[in-house]
Amino acid sequence: MKIFRKIAKNFVEGQFFKVIFTLIADFFRGLRAFVDYGLAAIARLILSGTSKIQDNKVVFMTFNNNYMCNQKYICEELLEQKLPLDIVWVCTKAQMASGQYPKNVRLVVRDSYEFFKEVATAKVWVDNALNFTWNPIPKKKGQFYLQTWHGSMGLKRIGKQDVKNARWSMSAAMAGKATTVCISNSTFETEVFRSTHWPKTEILELGHARNDVFFLSKQEQAKIRSRVCEFYDIPESYYIALYAPTFRNDDAADTYDLDHMKFVRALEAKFGGRWVLLNRYHFKTKNARKNSVETERIISATAYPDIQELIVAADVGITDYSSWICDLVLTQKPGFIYAPDLKAYDSERGFYYPLEETPFPIAETNEELAERIRNFDPVAYEQKRQEFLKARGCKEDGHATEKIVEIIKGQCGLA
Asked: How far is Cα 144 from Cα 17, in angstroms, rounded to an integer?
């Protein structure tokens, strides 16, 4: 009997019942979440069916709710033309007080009842990701869903088999069916849309509104650079490097091991002058931001809403696989790829083409990066840059915003 009591004691102390209790609790939490999601979906369906479309209402959403990307420039053009539109921007409660949104734009808190009401009654939805299908409300006949996407001639694959996130894939499938028009900036991007989630959607190769900023006059771009320098208290005589890597699903901090000062010193040795580095992490990245060190020469730029303005202000760009560097390629500025987990990332997510096809020198270690900078050849880089744009069938001409605004005006009866 003594041995059986000992076995029973060890059985209990072995956490068996704790494991069973946890499994049961997880089951009921999952069941509750499923029921909640189902009830919410029914409520959104009813709200959509009982709400009337307002022909002058346009709702903007970005993936992090900031005033940024294509939506920012489309919105500003609509405001500039003083059109009789009711413009709504979706944000978080905390962002409402940030001061980043125009005064003539109404703000609504994402996923609130008011938010779903605005979406249900809007004539036009303007998206840059999968925002309108993440917690979806049915798109009614007469509503226009404009997909502007935040990538372009980007590197990372976005197919169902590439992104290991079931909810993302489900939202992408719904977006593919609901989208009225996709805006593309190249024959390459059009093929990406066609081969992934938008095989039958109308695609217009107009260029991306966010990239019109790179075609502004030198004087206008200088104003943007001065604004960034003032924001971060950077002397205008300094040169600026922008480091902005993408996120990882596991958020492993060791993939963001760029030796910031080694990079800065290499730039100063190659190009001369005094340099600062703007360090901008993806909004999904937490560990790297938590562990990052800020100094007078290494400045955190994660909170700056619009990366396009940072690209304008920067003299050099560096990323791993983020598509913004395929916007930078429009500027003739040097770009570098620092990818310490290149093989692992390629195996997990994959690229649409080998990174060697880009004009950007590639490094997998800090020592290699310093060497790539020392050996940078601007003539060879410019030739590869032009070849890259031609091979991708780039359609950027600096007039994308006005073309897209004409589409929205047409849908709202203002053309």
From this structure: 54
